[in-house]
Automatic annotation (TrEMBL):
Entry keyword annotation includes Translocase: no
PANTHER family, per the entry: CRISPR SYSTEM CMS ENDORIBONUCLEASE CSM3
Keywords tagged on the record: Antiviral defense
Lineage: unclassified sequences, metagenomes, organismal metagenomes
GO biological process: defense response to virus
Keyword Nucleotide-binding: no
Domain CRISPR type III-associated protein: 43-204
Protein name: CRISPR type III-associated protein domain-containing protein
InterPro entries membership: CRISPR-assoc_RAMP_BGP1436, CRISPR_Csm3_endoribonuclease, RAMP_III_fam
Organism of this sequence: termite gut metagenome
One Pfam assignment: RAMPs
C-alpha cells in the first residue's frame, strides 16, 4: 500500500448526469400539480468545535485582529451564515442526485516539475526560450523580444559584485526558507550593484549537442557585447561536479543552478497581448503566478509603468506563454472544465439547479426555489467560546495531479506515467469532501519563514446548537425528498461546515425539528426521491458515488492518517525511478486512493430509506407488511429486534426502515408503531 495521504478525499464523478424532465416547466408563478410550498425548521448540533469566519475587511485580514479571528456574528449574536449551510447541503444533493460538477472555476494551471520528462522537460529541451521585457499600457501588454538569453556563472558575478553567490547557494539550510529561494532575495542583496554589462560569449561544447546554453564572461566596453543582468530564483542548492582523482573523469555531474542570465541589449521584435482577455495568455500567467513572491514584486513595478524581465516561447508569430524564469511554469494544455465528463458540460439543469437555481449564462439563469436563513446560536456564548487557535493551512495546490486527477494504477501506485492536464484523457478526481473523524488532529507546524501565514480563530465548542429555517416554494415531491435526504443523510452521518475541516472542525449533525406545508411524512418524500433515482440508474444505493460519500460521512479508522503531507513527501510521492539501461520503471509514483480503500475493515455504509407500512399478517411474533406508498400489494417479512416488545395486529400502521439488496427491497426493519 502506498503512503500518500491527505485530510480530504473525493467522491468520483459519474459519467452519467440526471437531468429532470420537468426542468423547463419550473415556474414561481404557475404551480406544479404536486408542487408544495412550506418551511422546514432545522437544528444544527456541533459534533466537534466549529468556526465560520466573521465578515472582515482586507485590512482586518492583514492585521489578523479580533474582527478577523471572530466567529460570524451580528451584535454579539453568533450564527452560521445561510450560505454555509446551503453550500454544505447543496453539495451533498449534487452527489446524491448524480448532478453536474458545475460550480467550479475554469482556470488553466501551470506545471513546473523536473521529474516529468514527457510533459515538462521535453518542451524546454526541444523549444527555444526567448527573453525580453514586459510593459503595460492600459489594457495592452507589450513584450519586447531580445532573443536567446545568455548565462553568467555565479563565480563571475562574485568577482564582479564582491558577492558570495557561488558558496551561499550551496547551503541547503539557507534554501529551506522559502523567501531565500526567490529572485527577490538576490535582487535585494544586489540592489546597488550595476546590472548593465559588457560581455563576450564563451565557446560552446561541440561534443554536447544537448547543451545549447550560451555562457558569457564580463569584458571591457570596447571589445564586447552589451546586456542586462537578470536574477531569477534558486529552487535548489548548487552541487559542484565530482571528478576522479586524476581529474580526467566526471564521477558525478554538477546539479542545481549556478548561474544567472544576461538579456542582450538589442531588441529583435515585440508582441502585443490583451491584458483583459479572460482566457488570454496574460490572464493565464497572472493566475499561475498569483501566489508568487517574485510576481508580487514585479507586478507593482509593471503597474507603475516600469519594464520587467520575462522568459517566453513563440509560435505562429505570437507569444504562446511566458514566465519569470527560464524553466518557467508551463501552462497546461487543458483547463479545469476540459477534464470533466462530457455530460457535466451541458447547460441543461440538473436536479440541484432545479431546486437551488443556476447562475449560468444570461439566457440560462434560473431562480432558486429554496431559501435558507442564518442559523443562530441557541446557547450562552460566554461558556462555549474557546481559546484562540493558530493553524497553518498547508493544503496542496489543486494542480497537484497525484491527488486531484484520476490516475491508473493499483494500491496507490501508478501504472506507467502520471496523468496531468497535458493529457487528453485527464479527468478530475471528483467532489472534494472531508471525512468525518472521531478526534481533532493537531495543526500543521509552519516551515521556517511561514509563521505569518497562520489563520487564527476562536471556535465555538462541541455541543453548541444552532437553529435555522428553510423555506421552499413549488417543489415537487421528488425535489422535496432530495432536499430532505441531503439534510438528514442517515442517523449516523454528519455534515461538515466552516473552517479547518481538514483537522476535524465543523462536523455537525442536522436534524429536522418541524415541517410546515407538506402533506406527507418526511420518509415518504425521501422514498419518492430514492425510487426516482432507482428507476434512472441501476443499483443506485450501491453505486460507488454514494459509497464514497457515505463512507466519508461517518468516522472510520483508516490505514493511512488523515493529515497533510510534508513538503518532502509531496516530492517523493511523485518520484519514479527508471532502470538506466532498459528505461523501465523500477519504483512507481504514488497517487491518492479513494477513501473506501483506506478504511480498516472497510464496511459499507447504507443509505437507509424510511417509510410507512401496514401489518397484513400477524401470528406468534411473525409479521408480514406492505408498504403504504406502493401501488402493488406485495408483502414483506418484518424484522424486529429481540428486545422490541410491541403488540402489533393486522391493520396497524408502523414506521419501517427499508433494507435494500442492489436495487430491490430485501426486508423491512421495524422502527416504531404509529398512533
Amino acid at each position: 500500500m502506498a503512503t500518500m495521504k491527505a485530510p480530504f478525499n473525493f467522491v468520483p464523478l459519474s459519467d452519467n448526469v440526471y437531468f429532470p424532465d420537468w426542468s423547463e416547466q419550473i415556474s414561481h408563478d404557475i404551480p406544479f400539480e404536486d408542487g408544495e410550498s412550506g418551511e422546514i425548521e432545522l437544528k444544527i448540533t456541533a459534533h466537534s468545535p466549529i468556526f465560520v469566519r466573521n465578515g472582515h475587511t482586507k485590512e482586518d485580514a492583514e492585521d489578523k485582529n479580533e474582527t478577523y479571528k471572530s466567529f460570524s456574528k451580528i451584535d454579539n449574536n453568533y450564527f452560521i451564515p445561510a450560505t454555509s449551510i446551503k453550500g454544505a447541503i447543496r453539495n451533498v444533493l449534487e452527489i446524491m442526485s448524480f448532478g453536474k460538477m458545475s460550480q467550479i472555476n475554469n482556470h488553466r494551471y501551470g506545471l513546473r516539475d523536473l521529474q516529468l520528462k514527457e510533459d515538462y522537460l521535453n518542451f524546454f529541451q526541444q523549444s527555444k526560450v526567448h527573453c525580453g521585457w514586459m510593459t503595460k499600457n492600459e489594457n495592452e501588454i507589450i513584450i519586447a523580444d531580445h532573443g536567446i538569453p545568455r548565462r553568467i556563472a555565479h563565480t563571475e558575478l562574485d568577482t564582479l559584485w564582491s558577492t558570495n553567490f557561488s558558496e551561499e547557494f550551496k547551503d541547503n539550510q539557507l534554501l529551506k526558507i522559502e523567501k531565500n529561494r526567490t529572485a527577490l532575495y538576490k535582487i535585494e542583496k544586489t540592489e546597488n550593484k550595476p546590472k548593465s554589462l559588457f560581455y563576450k560569449e564563451l565557446e560552446m561544447n561541440l561534443k554536447n549537442a544537448v547543451d545549447t546554453r550560451i555562457m558569457v564572461r564580463p569584458t571591457d566596453k570596447n571589445s564586447g557585447l552589451q546586456g542586462i543582468i537578470v536574477l531569477t530564483g534558486q529552487p535548489s542548492a548548487r552541487k559542484d561536479r565530482i571528478m576522479s582523482g586524476d581529474k580526467k573523469t566526471v564521477i558525478k555531474k554538477a546539479s542545481g543552478k549556478g548561474f544567472e542570465f544576461i538579456f542582450p541589449i538589442e531588441k529583435v521584435t515585440e508582441y502585443h497581448l490583451n491584458a483583459e482577455e479572460d482566457s488570454g495568455v496574460y490572464q493565464d500567467f497572472c493566475f499561475i503566478y498569483k501566489d508568487s513572491t517574485d510576481w508580487q514584486y514585479w507586478r507593482k513595478k509593471l503597474e507603475k509603468g516600469e519594464k520587467i524581465p520575462v522568459f517566453f516561447s513563440v509560435g505562429n508569430n505570437n507569444i504562446c506563454h511566458f514566465g519569470l524564469s527560464y524553466l518557467y511554469k508551463l501552462p497546461y494544455r487543458h483547463r479545469v472544465k476540459d477534464c470533466l465528463p462530457e455530460l457535466h458540460k451541458k447547460s441543461d439543469y440538473d436536479l440541484s439547479e432545479c431546486i437551488f437555481g443556476s447562475v449560468g449564462q444570461e439566457n440560462n439563469k434560473l431562480k432558486g426555489r429554496v431559501q435558507f436563513s442564518h442559523a443562530f446560536l441557541q446557547s450562552d456564548t460566554n461558556k462555549i467560546l474557546q481559546e484562540e487557535k493558530k493553524p497553518y493551512m498547508a493544503s496542496p495546490k489543486s494542480s497537484y495531479y497525484p491527488i486531484y486527477l484520476q490516475q491508473k494504477g493499483s494500491n496507490g501506485y501508478i501504472d506507467g506515467n502520471f496523468v496531468t492536464m497535458m493529457s487528453d484523457t485527464a479527468k478530475l478526481k471528483g467532489w472534494k469532501r472531508y471525512p468525518i473523524r472521531e478526534e481533532l488532529s493537531d495543526f500543521s507546524i509552519p516551515e521556517e519563514g511561514q509563521e505569518k501565514n497562520t489563520s487564527p480563530f476562536y471556535s465555538i465548542n462541541k455541543g453548541a446548537e444552532f437553529c435555522c429555517k428553510v423555506r421552499f416554494h413549488n417543489l415537487r415531491k421528488i425535489e422535496t425528498g432530495a432536499l430532505l435526504n441531503a439534510i438528514l443523510l442517515n442517523e449516523k452521518a454528519y455534515h461538515s461546515i466552516g473552517f479547518a475541516k481538514a483537522y476535524g472542525y465543523g462536523q455537525v449533525k442536522i436534524e429536522v425539528i418541524s415541517v410546515i406545508g407538506c402533506l406527507h411524512s418526511i420518509d415518504s418524500y425521501i422514498s419518492a426521491f430514492t425510487k426516482c433515482m432507482e428507476k434512472w440508474i441501476l443499483n443506485y444505493l450501491k453505486s460507488k458515488e454514494l459509497k464514497e460519500m457515505m463512507s466519508m460521512s461517518v468516522p472510520h479508522e483508516t490505514i493511512i492518517p488523515l493529515k497533510y503531507m510534508e513538503l518532502k513527501e509531496f516530492v517523493d510521492c511523485k518520484r519514479q525511478k527508471r532502470n538506466q539501461k532498459t528505461k523501465e520503471i523500477e519504483q512507481a509514483g504514488e497517487y491518492l486512493e479513494y477513501y473506501s480503500n483506506l478504511i480498516k475493515n472497510s464496511p459499507t455504509v447504507p443509505l437507509w430509506i424510511k417509510s410507512e407500512a401496514e401489518i397484513t399478517f400477524a401470528y406468534k411474533g411473525f409479521f408480514e407488511v406492505r408498504l403504504i406508498e406502493n401501488e402493488d400489494t406485495k408483502t414483506y417479512e418484518l424484522c424486529k429486534e429481540s428486545n422490541q416488545k410491541v403488540n402489533l395486529k393486522v391493520g396497524d400502521k408502523i414506521e419501517v426502515k427499508i433494507m435494500m439488496r442492489g436495487s430491490n427491497i430485501d426486508k423491512l426493519k421495524f422502527i416504531k408503531k404509529l398512533s
